[in-house]
Design a protein that fits this description.
24% strand, single chain, seven-stranded mixed β-sheet, Peroxisomal Thiolase, Chain A, domain 1, 11 helices, 339 residues, 17 strands
Length: 339
Amino acid sequence: MDNNRMRGKQSIELDRGVYIMSSASVTGKKEGEGPLGDKFDIVCDDPMLGQDSWELAESTMQKKAAQTALEKAGLSASQLRYIFAGDLLGQLIATSFGLETLDVPLFGLFGACSTCGESLALGAMTICGGYADYVMSLTSSHFGSAEKQFRFPLEYGNQRPLSATWTVTGSGAFILSGKRGKVRISGITTGKIVDYGVKDSLNMGAAMAPAACQAITQNFKDFDRKPQDYDRIFTGDLGYVGQQILWDLVSEQGYDIRKNHGDCGIEIYDQKTQDTHAGGSGCGCSAVTLSSYILPLLEQGTWKRVLFVPTGALLSPTSFNEGQSVPGIAHGIVLEHCR
């Protein structure tokens, strides 16, 4: 039996119900001091989480998020068929060391900061196809580990330009199931790699905005929808700089999303008081914002349909040091309230 239908050039409509059974958000102290602080499941005051390195601290966050999501769903790890997970670090070391003790088959993913969308998409397709009863989609980022890998040593104390975003210390986990719940994943728009030649690694909003535009407008075309068919359209971590670029690019395609667009990187920090410049970024940014802020409003029925579009900058230390540009990618997840 064919449980899904291809829509347009890049999208899938899931005919068989796929629901978000539970979710969990684990963050650092700075995120806990932001506008969403009282909505997170766990706020860790110690940035090292009792570990000896930033990388092991991130792995510990993943473990906490996974365990919390399982507890909220009333499941054990042994009931998961698969985990779809990834992070920003080389060879996904936060994920491999964080989840190894769960003893669950793992698909390790890299979509940069779009990994939350990628993991939800693949998990939903697996449930819809009848290949699993329960799967977990999970991702993380950590300010210390990401900055050490992509920027400068923290002790260097370099000055950050106003276009820079602040890597979120956070991990988000989601349990997907075919059992009816309050929020359904009804559609997926898989993004393309889009490269406008941006080479400034401290202005990732500019690098990712074109990919977000491509995924969002393609979603409109594939599902024959307009911006107003969504209560909200959330991108992952374009920040204040990328948001303006996105609005302009989408406008050139004949759409206006200014009234219902939000960005997780803008929602998670207070720009005026937290010195985060253009906003938040990192795999954990969109994941913890989805879990703590977006999903509850969908569950309550405040929003009926949301287009969730995590965005990723596909760079590495090697590509940056070799003078390569920063390609972007974004994946669209259609989330709907279920009565």
